[in-house]
Amino acid sequence: MPLLIAFLLLPIVEIWLLIEIGGEIGAGATIGWIILSAVIGGFLLRSQGTQATARVRAALAQAGPEGRPDSAALAGGLLDGLTVVVAGVCLILPGFLTDAVGILLFIPSLRRVIGRVLWNGLRGSSRMRVYAASGRGPFRAQATTVIEGEYRDVTEPRGGNGDSAPPRLP
Question: Which has the closest alpha carbon to 38: 101, 85, 94?
């Protein structure tokens, strides 16, 4: 229920802020700020998202003693990537409040603090379960299924009737 209230109040607060701040700085500056923040958000989302993806891949590549990746490093990389995506979306969305949240989430130290708080909350929650697949156990890779079949080329040779229509199947 609190999430629904937040989704209902956010546009109202954003419109109010756009009117108030837009009245102070002018319509052109407000529109310029919205466009600039969207461009910066897209750029930061792309660059920092790539870095977050690299950290997750590195965490997956490092196997622990049982051949599994380090769950803390993997969770940290995933939460970092999630906050980068949320920050980028906040900057892309028009509005001053979402821009402020997006700018704050792009600060790496603040992202780590938020990630730790989220991880500790999720880890203690009874709603979350983490399962990792490895080469052993019930999640091991299954043999590839091969399906045999026959085919017939139904395209007409070039220089035929001069028709450029695609071939029809019989």
Answer: 94
pLDDT recorded at residue 13? 93
Please give the residue that has the higher pLDDT: either 92 or 74.
Answer: 92
Dihedral class, residue 165 (left if φ above 0, else alpha if ψ from -120 to 50, else beta): beta
Report the chain's mean pLDDT, rounded to a whole number: 79
Q: What does pTM read for this prediction? A: 0.64
What is the Cα–Cα distance from 80 to 96, expressed in whole angstroms? Answer: 23
CB count within 10 Å of CB 33 equals: 18
Please state the rounded mean pLDDT for residues 143-164.
Answer: 69
Strand partners of residue 72: none
- Rounded to the nearest angstrom, the gap between the alpha carbon of residue 119 and the centroid of all alpha carbons in its chain is 18
* DSSP-assigned beta bridge partners for residue 69: 63
If you search the block for the tokens 């209230």, which residue do you land on? 5
Q: How far apart are CA 14 and CA 125, in angstroms?
A: 32
Angle between helices 96-105 and 2-25 (to 10 degrees): 110
Q: For residue 30, what are the contacts with CB-CB under 8 A and spacing of at least 6?
A: 18, 21, 22
Question: What tokens appear for 97 in the block?
Answer: 């409040």
